[in-house]
Specification:
The protein has about 120 residues and is an all-beta fold. It has a domain of about 80 residues: Cupredoxins -  blue copper proteins (Immunoglobulin-like), CATH 2.60.40.
Length: about 120
């Protein structure tokens, strides 16, 4: 009998950004709002899918706690419309991440969603 290992799980998080009421203010929504990771070594893709016609890209990501032994370094696609990282998902915890963006005219802003790790036995 051949034993097959499970394939890598991918979790896509859609990111929508729209202008706010104030100048250089942006409102960010992620779907799911708090992704729940249940499998080990899950690839998480944050994808800009709607920017309401504005030239907005990812600049990077920061995580708290920084030395969390759960999330690998983030990488940006060439277009900077996708940010990808791998979650080891070995500890049951909530990670606080900050998505960093750059908007029109070099305006930088951020959004702080969470990632919930719930390893399954």
């Amino acid at each position: 009998m051949i034993k097959m290992t499970a394939s890598t799980q991918f979790l896509n998080v859609l990111v929508s950004v729209r202008p706010g009421a104030a100048k250089d203010e942006y409102i960010v929504h992620t779907a799911p709002a708090i992704p729940c990771v249940t499998q080990p070594d899950t690839v998480i893709n944050y994808q800009l899918y709607d920017t309401h016609g504005h030239d907005i890209v990812f600049k990077g990501l920061t995580v708290v706690p920084a030395d969390n032994n759960q999330l690998g370094p983030a990488s940006l696609s060439n277009s900077k419309k996708q940010l990808t990282l791998v979650d080891a998902n070995t500890d049951n915890l909530i990670l606080h991440v900050t998505l960093n963006f750059e908007g029109p005219n070099g305006v930088e802003f951020m959004h702080d969603p969470q990632i919930r790790n719930e390893p399954q036995p």
